[in-house]
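Objective 1.3, modelling of assemblies. Example input:
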Amino acid sequence: MSFERPRRLRSAYSGLTAHGESWVWLTGGALAMAIAMITGLLLFIVVRGASTFWPMPLERVELVDGRQVLGEITGREEVGQRVEEVQGDPAAAAGPQRASAVGIRMARRLVRTANFEITGNHYEWFDEPKIARTSLPEWATAVERLEGGRFHGFPLRLVHATENSTEVVAQGPEKTWQAYEQLHPAFRRRFREAMHIDKHQRGVLQRQLRAARMAVVQADLDRGRKSPAYAAAVEAEATIAGRMQKQSAILDGQTARLREQNAGWGVEFETASGEKRTLPLDAIVRGWQPNRLSTIGKLGVYFSRWVEFLWDDPREANSAGGVFPAIWGTVAMTLIMAMFVAPFGVLAALYLREYASAGFLTTAVRIAINNLAGVPSIVYGAFGLGFFCYVLGAGIDEIFFQPSLVADNQPTFGTGGLLWASLTLALLTLPVVIVATEEALSAVPNSMREGSYACGAGKWQTIRRIVLPRALPGIMTGLILAMARGAGEVAPLMLVGVKKLAVDLPIDGTFPFVHPEREFMHLAYLIYDVGFQSPNSQAAQPMVFTITFLLVMIIALLNVTAIWARSRLKRRYVSQQF
Amino acid sequence: MNNPADRLVAVAAGKEVPSEVHQQVLDERPVLEIDRFSLWYGTKQALHSITMPISHNKVTALVGPSGCGKSTLLRSVNRLNDLVPSVRSTGDMRLNGDSIYDPSMDVIDLRKRMGMVFQKPNPFPMSIYENVVYSLRIDGENSRGVLDEVCELSLRGAALWDEVKDRLADSAVGLSGGQQQRLCIARAIAAEPEVLLLDEPCSALDPMATGKVEDLIQELRGRYSVLIVTHNMQQASRTSDYTAFMYLGRLIEYGPTTEIFTKPILRETEAYVTGRFG
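Predicted structure (C-alpha cells):
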C-alpha cells in the first residue's frame, strides 16, 4: 500500500510573486517612462532651439476684407468659438429674437507680421475663414534691424540722401537687392568700428581718467589737501585729463568720419499694405529673401544667425542678437566655482573620512552636511548677499577701494559680482562634493591603506599617494554633479551679481585685466529674463528655447569633458579583476 | 592527557596551558623574539602570552584553525593593529634586539624594517615600477639609478622580472592575480626587510599562481627571515623550516616542520596537521 501525499496546490497568484514576472514589467515600465520623459524633454528643447534660426518662408496673407500682410506663419491652433446665430425671419424681429449659441470648431493662424512701428504688433492671429488667399511672393524680404524688431516688405530702391538731394542708386527689387548685398558689408563694418570705438576705446579712456581721479581722492584721504602728494596727484590728473581730451577728440573725428560715410544711405521698402519705409543701411543687421533662397542659401542665413547668437552682444532687451556675455559668464562662473569647491570639499571630506575618529560629533557633522544639500538655493543667495557682498565685499572696499566709496558712493566689491556669485555657488555645491568624495574615499579598499602603512608610509603619504589617486574618479563624479547643478542655478545668482545686461566681460585689456567684482550675465537667468521680462514675449519665445538649448549643450559639454577625464583616470587606477 | 583534545579542551575552557617548544628552535639565532605577548580587542583577549623566537633567515609557518590569532600575531609584529581602535596589548617583541612596543619606537621606522604581503593582492594604483619602489619613494629617494637598480633586483627576487620588464610603466592593476601577489612580494623585499611577513599570501590565488608563489618562498629561504601564516598544511610542510601550531590565541606547539608533521610531541598537534580536527 502506497501512501500518496496530497499534492499541495499553489495559489494562482503565487507564481506571479514567486517568479517576479510582474516586477519585470513594473520596473521596466518605470525605466521606459523615465527614459521617454528625458528624451522627450531633450528632443523638445533641441528641436525648438535648433529651428529658431531657420529662415521660414514669408507668406502674403490676403484677408477677406482686402487687408494684406506679409509674414511667417509660425503657428496654427483650433479654437472653439461661440457664434451667435439668429434664427427665424429677421423681418419679424418685433418679438424677442430667438438666438441660440452654436459652438463650432475653427482654426486660426499665428502670423509674424513684424513692422511693429506700423501695426503696433509683432504677431497677429488670423481666423482661417477670414483668410482669402496666401501666396509666396518672390521678393518678400525679412530684415533684422538694430532696433524695432523685424521688418517685412518688398525692396523698392536703394537711395543715398544728402542734405539737399536724394540720389537713387538702384531701382526695382532685383537691382536694389543686388546693390544692397554689395554695399551692406562695408556699411556694417564701418558701423561696428564706430560702435567699438564708442564702447571700448572710450571706456578705456574713461577708466584711466577715473583712476587718476581716484588717485587724487586717495591722496586727499591719506595725506590731506595741503600735502605735496595731493598736489602731485592733482597735477597728474590734469595731465591725464588733457591727454584724454586730445585722444577723445581724435576718436570723435574717427567716429564722425565713419558715421558720415554711412549717413543718408538707405533701402526703401514697401510693406504688403503699401506703406513705404526707408531703412538706414547701417541699421540693417541682416536681410534675406526666404522665398528666393535655395537650401544652401537658407543654411547660410541659418549659420550666420547662429554665429551672431554665439559671438555678439544682445540687442533689443536681450530678445535678439547674441548671448556671448552670458556664455562667458556661465562658463567662467562654473569654472571659478569648481576651483573653489573642489579643494575645500575634498579636504573637508578627507578630514571626515580619514582623520576624524568615529563618534557622535562626526556623525552629527555628516548628517548636517547631508542636510545642507537640501537647503533651498535662494537661502544661499541671501547668505551670499548678506555675507560676501555686504560684509566681506564692504570690508574690502573700506580697505582697498575707499576713494571710490567716498567720491562716487560706488561700491566695488560691496555689491554682487562674479567672484561672490562663484563663492555662493561653491557653498551651495559643497555638500555634493563632500558627500561624493567621502563615498569615493570609503570605497578605497582598506587593504590599500594597510599595504601602504606596511611599507612604512605615514598617514599623509598614504592619502596623497594611494587613497586620493584611487578615489579620484569618484571625486570627479561629485565635481561633475556639482558643476551641473551650479551651472543651472538661477535663484541665488539673481541676488549676488547676475544682471539682465552686462556686456563688460570680467576680463579685459585694462589693468588689472581680471575684474572678479564685475556683474555678469548668465544663461539660466537669461532664460528667465527673456521668457518673462521681455516686452515682446512672442518674439522672444523662440530665443528662450535657443538659449535653453545652448545651456543644455554647455552643461553637457562640461560634463562630457569631466567624464572623459574620469574614465581616463579609472583606466589607470581601478583594477578590472577584483 | 591521553585524549588528543585534552589540551585543546582545557584551552577552550579558558585555562592557561604551557607551549611545547622544541629545543632546535631555541638553538637558532632569532631575528624576532616574541616575549609574553598578549592582545585584546576591546574586552576579548585574542592572544594569550605568546612567547616564541623567529629564526634568522628561515621560513617560519604559523598554522591553526580560523580565529586562532595567527593573523593578529603577524599584524602585531609590524604594529598594524595600532590602526584598529580599542586594541591594547601587554608583553613585548624585539626585532634584532630593539623593542617593538617601546613607547619611544617610531612605528614608521619600524615598519620600514619589515615587509608585509597580504591575503588579497593589493597593488597600488600606479605603475608596476612605482609599486616596487614605493618604499624608497616615501623615503624621498628620487635618484633614477638607485630606483632602477632596486626595481630590477626586487622583481628578479620575486621571479617577476621576465614577465614585466617590458611594461614597467604599465598600471599594476592590469597584472593577473598571481603576478600581482608576486609584485607585492617584490614591493616588500625592495626595502631590504629584516623580517618578511606573509599573511596567507596564496589564499586568493589559483593553483598555478599558488605554485609560483610557493616556489618563490622556497627561493627566499636562506636570504630572508620569513614569517608566513597559512591555512594550507601542505604549503606549510613544503615551504617552511619551522612550524608553530596555534589554537584560540595560544601557542600550542612550535618546532621544526619535519618534526611537527611527522612526530609531534603533542597528539593535539598531530590531530590538527593530519586533518582530524580543525
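The mean pLDDT of chain B is 88.
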